[in-house]
Design a protein that fits this description.
It contains three helices and five strands; from the N terminus they run βαααββββ. A hairpin with a 5-residue loop joins strand 3 and strand 4. The chain has one domain: Ribosomal protein L22/L17 (Ribosomal Protein L22, Chain A). By secondary structure, the chain is of the alpha+beta class.
């Protein structure tokens, strides 16, 4: 039986999150949390929150043993991009794209 958690519209680019997400895919939850705790990236903090949420969702199901959970799947999809303007010299304006991510974590029993 699986449990999942989703965080939408996270204010970080999906390419940056995927670098950290690939490190914990397929690992036991306890090991994944330790990896994220000592990873010095903003994405690690966000992934840790979503992973905690998925484990909490799994605790609500009566047939799941939380000690045997592992990270079965992590999806990091691109969310909507916020468009902003940066004033430049001679009256020009450059476009700034502030990217967002949708993060989904699925945990399952071994």
């Amino acid at each position: 039986m699986e449990a999942r958690a989703t965080a939408k519209f996270m204010r970080i680019g999906p390419r940056k999150v995927r670098l950290v997400a690939d490190n914990i895919k397929g690992k036991p939850v306890e090991e994944a949390l330790n990896i994220l705790r000592f990873t010095p990236k903003k994405a690690a903090k966000m992934l840790r929150k979503v992973l905690f949420s998925a484990v909490s969702n799994a605790e609500q199901l009566p047939s799941i043993d939380v000690d045997t959970l592992y990270v079965r799947e992590i999806q990091v999809n691109e969310g909507p991009t916020w468009k902003r303007i940066m004033p430049r010299a001679m009256g020009r304006a450059y476009r700034i794209r502030k990217r967002t991510s949708h993060i989904t974590v699925v945990v399952d029993e071994m």
